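Honest question from a wet-lab person: if I give you the sequences of every part of a complex, can you actually get the arrangement of the whole thing, not just the pieces? Trying it with mine:
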Amino acid sequence: MRRSAADGWRARARPCFGSLLSIRARGLPRAEADALLSDAFALAARFHDAMSRQSAQSDLAAIRRLRPGERLRVRPETSSVLRRALEIAEQTGGRFDPVMPEGRRGATWRDLDLAPGGEFSVRVPLALSLDGIAKGFAADRICERLRDRGASDVVVDGGGDLALDCRTPQRVGIRDPRAPGVVARVVEVARGGVASSGAYGGISELWRRAGPPAAWPRAVTVIAPDCATADALTKVAALDGGGALLARFGASEPILVEGAA
Amino acid sequence: MLRRREFLGGLLALLVPRLVRAEHYLDLDEAARVLFPEADAFTPAAAELDREAQKRIKKESGMRVRNRRVEALRAQRGGETIGWIYLDEVIGKHEFITYALGIDAGGAVRGIEILDYRETKGGAVREAAWRAQFRGKTGLDPLRLGKDIQNISGATLSCRNLTDGSRRLLATHAALGR
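Yes, you can. This is the full assembly:
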């Protein structure tokens, strides 16, 4: 299918965050559209480089090596995401926790300290995972930047987690993890984030944290005011359904794809 | 009784993955301009890989050459070569991706731009059996991905194929002596 230029959307995609990052925008100044989109990808790459679990040069690698009493100045991108992650951890009573269970040794989000200037310290050795929330945070920032630069509508798709800032509601299909190529549900969103966690590509981070599901949903989708929050809340929703807790963040009731793993 | 042609056609339909979603992002010349915005000219630079080159690429990248013909463009500025843009395709479990890899004059990767992303349904037979459970259940009939739903939540793609393809292209670039 060839995208029609007449509908005004300009779309580009690059690999990022271990998946495909696509950015669609409408209304950008024609002469600057490519440069603005390239700039947006560069922004995403900075977030990825700062918080990649695979890279030895990332802030997450440095945090893994950190010992109690040591201080580490993290990049501004990491500081922003960590700050948001800690806010959500506190507001959900730790149901969302960026500390990885396998590195935990009893550590939780309460063992992290992020000072206002971006200096980071730990009370016990630990490892963090910020994959989804970092991706969502970057997607949200890209939306903001492109809107600031004149875009009337922006949709950022970071490997299936979406940030939208559009004048009118856009149809979003929620993929069914049991059948590739099939959509389980369609929702309409003009502004906000849509994130899904679950059995989309094998063992999910959700299951890694708390074991294989017995009565868990196969997939959880949350619609929230922004993509970073939506991603964090998919973990909360899978644990105990969400309900009033998700409503506190302005998020919708989670959409569940049920069934045995 | 089915005629042979109908039987084979039906069998083929079951085996061949059907395209359910296709996104076109860029043409090759558009990708070239994005990867090398400072260039003032792009010229064809296709090449054929001989046996020695194929062996070298396999050894350096660990990947077999699938196509002897290499499609590429040369990016120039003021008559000087500033880089190369290679066209390639990778095939994943459910997707085909056509992409362009930019390599600068020093041999470093300038960037990757996706040209086309095509998603297939893959297990057509499996899906028919799965869909059967929805018959008669109002409101639960699953929709198919299609051109009227541009945005999809729920990831399936890993970038590993693109990473592997890029590694093969870098080895190809070196084997061509560029």
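Two things worth pointing out. The two ends of chain B are 60 Å apart (CA to CA). The first helix of chain B runs from residue 4 to 15.
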